[in-house]
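fold-stage: in
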Amino acid sequence: MHSLSFYPEEMPRYAKSRVLVLFDIDGTLLRRAGPHHRQVLEEAVWQVAGVRATTEGIPVQGMLDGAILQCMLRQAGVAETAPAQMLAIMKKAQALYVRRCPDLREKICPGAPELLERLAAGGAVVGLVTGNLSRIGWRKMTQAGLRAHFRFGAFAEQAETRAELAGLALQEARRRAWLDTPMVATLIGDHPNDILAARANGLRSVAVGTGVVPLEELAQHRPDILVPDLRALKLEQLICAD
């Protein structure tokens, strides 16, 4: 795990809350955000490692960017990548994406802005748990006009699995003394990996059908709450213990 900051800037003081809500990005807050993310991963591998690698044939949904890069390199014939080189690839990909990310306001999933506004009004602690690298994730939120809703995030370069990322986010919220007791903590995502990550950390899981995984398949993984999109998710479901 790489020790990198959760935050792009210093965080202000906050009152304690009994509600923590963590969001995935792709398929949950945004959908069909364009090819730029995949393209910068491919270009970063070429610029840093001199290897022509592609995301073609890799089931990237639900994966962390680091795992995607490892798969790309192995698929291109690179058996092992030195940690320093992988960090350089990640750094290059993020720099490229920050420059190229388009306006994403039309890519926001239905109901996301309204739900985020309601959570803010209720004083909830709201963060990101995403397979995106940190600068890529924050850039997406900025270009979608959603950045101000998120207090912190856990990102791909900080762990090897989504469950570990969810655990890091929970630990950080507690370390910052943002949470009161009793507490209701929820992870919202569009992939079975999000459901499993929530379960591994004792979080309530909300699965939304705005990604590539059909609702029927998500239901097989028994999320605590299953909705077609965020418009169907009521605030009470996130703030009530039962």
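fold-stage: in (second)
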Amino acid sequence: MSIPPPPGSRQPRGPYGPPPADRPQAYRPYGTPVSVNALAVAALVLGVFCFLPAAGLMFGLVALRQIRRSGQSGRGMAIAGAVLSSVGIVLWAVVLSTGAAHKAWEGVKDGAQGNESLSLDKGDCFDAPGGLEGDTYDVDRVPCEGGHDGEVFAVVTLPGDAFPGDARITGIADERCYALQDQYAMDTWAMPADVDVYYLMPSRESWRYGDRAITCLFGNTEAGIKLTGSLRGDPTTLDTGQVVFLSTANALDTALYEEPEKTPDDDLAAHRAWAGQVHDVLGEQIEALRGHPWPAGARRPVADLVDGLEDAREEWKRASTASDADAYYRHYDKAYGSVDGPATVTARKALGLAATPPAAGERESGDSEAQV
């Protein structure tokens, strides 16, 4: 028979006897509340949401060690958080190694943006399921050889962080797109009569996702009618002689386009000044035509054209000093007689360019836009 120790000398015992002397006391008096390890909770949360999986794994392992020493609850949460975080680390490694993260983010941006305007480049042809009028939410790039709704001839990038407003963007598109069209389709005589300039513009919503592009494009003026074949005619598709000829012709057309709105009867001074500007531009273009080494078949036709331009230049000079509107009109009519006349047609034929002058007013600017 054993004699029990005196009261107060008993040590609490667990199912396997007292703890070793070298281990921290892990026993609690009966009825003491058991606390939940905070790191176990954090590990479980990070593991479930797959957010910072490396931190979730670390918290889970540390929590298990603390629970063993302190006797706190939460072991199951720590294990679950560690396992889920380990799975999360593997998944992130796969996503990053395959580039899926970048693709997914681009998909999110495109979905929120509601358009693919940023993916269109100069020279691209595309179809727009909703047409070129109104809001455009999607475009499909297609070969230019077949039928297509639009052909991109320029992309203008807008500066700034704040959305400038629809009216401001439309004004920039009008100014820049019409100015850039002849750099892509240099031969204005070759442009079909039913083709005009359109543009895709950023919307307020797409601007928030980085869309800063005004996409300038050609499209048919008749809804539902597609373009066929590329309209591109620039140094990438033309020879040097054709580029020089068209550059001089387009520079002269630009100068002539600046004619004052008021008539010489109402504002003779403005017309005189404009006539002087045309005279100066003609001088530059004549010099360029004379200085180029033309192929044998085009030398004579180009020389005849230059002679006619010299006569026109002299008439513009006289118009710039006309004493009254009647005198101005006489020189004005003679000067215009040498523009796009028979000599121009002959020179164009010799250079393999379009030889049928466009009808008057055939390519006046419209107001064609789509917002993306």
